[in-house]
Amino acid sequence: MKRILPVILVLIAVIAIYSQVAHFEYAWDDLALFIDSPALRGGADTIAAITRPILPGTSYFRPAVLLSFLLEFKYWGMSATFSHLVNLALFLANIAMVGLLAWRLFPERRHLPALTMLLYGIHPAMIESVSWVAGRFDLMVTFFVLFGLLCYVGTERAILRVLGCSLAFFCAAASKEMAVVYPPLLGVIAVLALRERSLASIVARLSRRRDIWVAVSVFLAGLVYLWLRHHFLTSMANTDPRMIALSITERAAFVGQTILFYLRVCFLPFMDLGTMHPFDPVGMTLPRKLVGLIALLAFCGFCAWALWRRSVLALLALAWCVAILPVTNILPLTVGGNIGHERFMALPLVFLSLWAGYALLGLLDRGRITVYFGALAVVWSVVSIFNLLVTVPLWRDDVALWTWAYNAHPEMGITQFSVVSSMLRTGNLEDAGKYLKEIEAFYGGELPPRLLAIKGQWLQRSGRYEESIAALKKALEGGEMLPHEMLMQQGIDYRHSQVDLGSFNESWYLRFVYGAMAESYIGERKFDEAIEAVDVQNFYQPDYAPAQLLKALAYYGKDDVAGGDVNYEKAKSYYTPEQWPHADSIKKNFLTKLCSEDKKPMAVCARWSSEQKLNLVHE
Question: Is residue 237 over pLDDT 80?
């Protein structure tokens, strides 16, 4: 009971801190994943839904997490509260497994499980993964990696160990690509479990048949995953062209700077908590390059020393180094102009917490913890908890999130676009206009294309349709020929085609631009032009509910009752049941206003009048 009570208290403390997420809404990528896409909300093709790229222009193959969302929405409905509670449950499970791993590796350290769990549970870098529904990718890869490591150190039966380790690797890989570090982490944990420092003894003991079978099964699980990934995705990775253009020296310096960033996130997380961490590798100054190169050399040297030393603390630190490798920008992947994100530390922090807990207890046992050192540890913990209490609420909804991000980085295009977009989503035209004015001043009155597009939507929502259309068309000028235009040039009807979401990362933006344009055309009562804009919108996302709703309104405007009804029912099939009243309200407001005009569509308005009279009778 003396061992269990501290563990229970840690879990209760974490629940108390994070329980507020039950009242949070979907935010950021959640909107693209769930609100704007019906694929995970009851589509007929389950396999297609969970094997598609999670976002346009990405090569992320994460069917395990997508399946968790699909099952959640199928059996419990689409509820932000439930989604957040699932994430919190995963986090609590991970905390418990961190403690269990500490106990299995170091049973003689009776206080280590609770201390390790506390360090992991209150670390501010975990806020993003727990408070944001899309953070489930990081929580689940951590869950399965921990499960696999526990299968290795906690299972005596060979068959269960083999099955557990290999299945855990496959599920981790199907959750997030970061699982690539599972095999080397398994090796580090295997050495830790041996308590041997002699290289010959380690090799001899790990050459046993049961360990060889574990290695073979993990290798085969990896092959199955790679085959599935190759089968379902059109590309294995999407790279950042600016990163590819860097010289070897510049790339190495950038990797070193990334390592320094994650050291800061892990040891001093309260210095720069946020959604954005901008860094331009192309514009690195000479001092930054030198610091980055020195950091990379030191990192490599430390890893070599840890392999040679093979002490408990050295191996735990080595595990952290291994765990961060996929996110150190060694590969030129796209991270939206950021050097990294806090959520990427969900797995590495497991080993940092083990390292810190083991080191602290070791110092305590030797009587080497001074008053000052103890005070520093207490201050770190108190500041971390304070950061949790202050920062977690900033993830409560899209407006709060992007207001925070914009205030921290007002110079970033993504924060500028997103803060205005979040205001428009909630109908806050006044504040959206204020932000646009501030952003326009930042650019000297000449907005870049994407921000001009969001201004076009603001103009449309403000009833300034002609200005909106002009702004949206200008936002599309000067770029390369768009995919649907290429098809038109080849004589192909794009209305019967669809862009490849896996290879084209601008589909969301073009869907947005042509959608805003369609709304403005409807406002001007140019219904044919609106339908044409929606057809382009459908090319970039055929299952986008608002596009079908706009098309329905345009057909009603053309006095085509059947066309309007077909598209309206199609729109409702893409919306969630919770969104149906909103769609009904849009239709009602549109038809009420349309039918009060002089040039009203006679057949549509006659039926609308009859429906309204019938509703009055029923009321």
Answer: no
Residue entry with tokens 């922090």: 349
For the cut 80, the answer to whether the pLDDT of residue 209 exceeds it is: no
Domain boundary among 437, 470, 503: 470
- Asked if 269 and 387 touch (Cβ cutoff 8 Å), the reply is yes
Distances (CA, A) of 111 to 34, 317, 353, 361, 365: 42, 20, 13, 8, 11
- Of the candidates 463, 464, 440, the one whose C-alpha atom is nearest the C-alpha of residue 452 is 440
pLDDT value at 33 more than 60: yes
Q: 471: closest CA among 487, 455, 486?
A: 455
The C-alpha atoms of residue 383 and residue 395 are separated, in whole angstroms, by: 19
Same domain, 54 and 165: yes
DSSP helix/strand/coil, 182: helix
Spatial distance between the Cα atoms of 18 and 480, rounded to a whole number of angstroms: 46
Asked if residue 17 lies in contact with residue 391, where contact means CB atoms within 8 angstroms, the answer is no
Q: Would you say 537 and 518 are in contact if contact means Cβ atoms under 8 Å apart?
A: yes
pLDDT in tens, 365-395: 777 666 677 788 888 999 999 999 999 999 9
Measure the CA–CA gap between 179 and 302, rounded to whole angstroms: 23
Query: In terms of Cα–Cα distance, which of 510, 504, 604, 613 is closest to 564?
Result: 604
What is the rounded CA–CA span in Å between residue 36 and residue 421?
14
pLDDT at 424: 96
Go through the chain and tell me how many residues it has. Answer: 619
Query: Is 0.90 topped by the overall pTM?
Result: yes
One domain, residues 216 and 80: yes
Same domain for 437 and 532? no
Please state, in angstroms and rounded to a whole number, the distance separating the CA atoms of residues 432 and 412.
17
Q: Is the residue at 475 inside a domain?
A: no
Residue among 539, 487, 480, 531 nearest 508 (CA): 539
* Cα dist from 567 to 355, 544, 546, whole Å: 58, 12, 10
pLDDT of 504 reads 75
What is the longest distance spanned by two Cα atoms in the chain? 92
